[in-house]
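Continuing the series of single-chain predictions for the mutant panel. This is the parent chain; the variants come on the following pages.
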Amino acid sequence: MFFSSVCICIVQLRNLLWATSKNDVYLMQNYSVMHWSSLLRRGKEVLNVAKPVAPTRQHPGLLSQSLSRVQISTMAVKENLMVAGGFQGELICKCLDQPGVAFCSKITTGENAITNAVDVYRNHNGSMRIMAANNDAQVRVFDAETFASLNCFSFDWSVNNTSVSPDGKLLAVLGDSAECLIADANSGKVTGSLKGHLDYSFSSAWHPDGLILATGNQDTTCRLWDIRNLSQSLAVLKGNMGAIRALKFTSDGKFLAMAEPADFVHVFDTQSDYLKCQEIDLFGEIAGISFSPDTEALFVGVADRTYGSLLEFNRRHYNFYLDSIF
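Parent structure:
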C-alpha cells in the first residue's frame, strides 16, 4: 500500500503530528511546533513554548492568561487553527496565518491536570469548536473564533480521548475505564455504551460515513462498532505488543491506520472488511500518525533520541487497463 522516506527529528509522545496537506505537516520538536514541507524538505518553527507565551486577544470574560515553558502533551491542526494541550492543564490556540498566540490559559489546575487530547471540529450547525479532554474527568468545549468557554461535561473517570462524529452530533468518550461512552456532542448526555474492551482506552476515530467508530485500548486491540447497534463490536483488530495509542481513517474511508506505542503501525484495508493489513515495522516510540487529506500519504512520527524521525509513506496505485479493439 505504501513506501517510506525519512526526514526530521521528534521527541514527545501522544498525538503530536498532523498533516493538513501532502506537503504540509505540523509536529512537535522539543519545545517547538514545526511546520515541515515534504515538498521543499525543510522545516520552520511556528510556535515556541520554551519561553513565555502571551495571548494576543483580550476582551472581557475571556479567561486567557500568559503561560511559561509549556510541555505540550497533545495537539491538533485544522482549517488554519492549531490547538495544543499541556501537561499542567494548559490550552494554547494559534491561528496559523497570524503572528503570536490568539488564546492560551490553564483550563484546569487540579493534581490530574494533564490535557490528554484536543480536537477541532464543526458541530451540527457548522460552527467550529475546540474540545479538550483532561485527566480531571472533564471535557471542555470552546468557541474556535472567540475562544469563549461554552460547556463542560463531567464523567466518572479520567478522559483520555474524545472524538466527534462527522455530522457533529455524537461524541465518543474514552478513558480510565473498560467501558467507552457515546454522548450527545451538544449536551454531553450519555446515550450509549460500548462494552468489550478489557482495559483503559486511549484513542478513537470515526469512519467518514459516520456509521463506524474505531476505539483503541490498553488490551492491545482496536474494536470497530456500528453506531446503529452498540450491543457488540463488529470486529476486533489485534496489535502486536502494546496499547493502541492512535487511530486514523483516510478521508475516503478506504484505510484505517492503527499505531502502537512503539515499533508498529498497522494499515487496514476497510474494503476487505479489515482482513487485509500492511504492517509497518519501525524502531522507536511513535509520536503520532496522520494521513494527508488527499489520502496519498501517511506520516508517522518516531520519538527516539538516536533514531527520531518523520516517516512519509506514499500510497501505491495499481492501474489495470482493458485492451480495446476499434
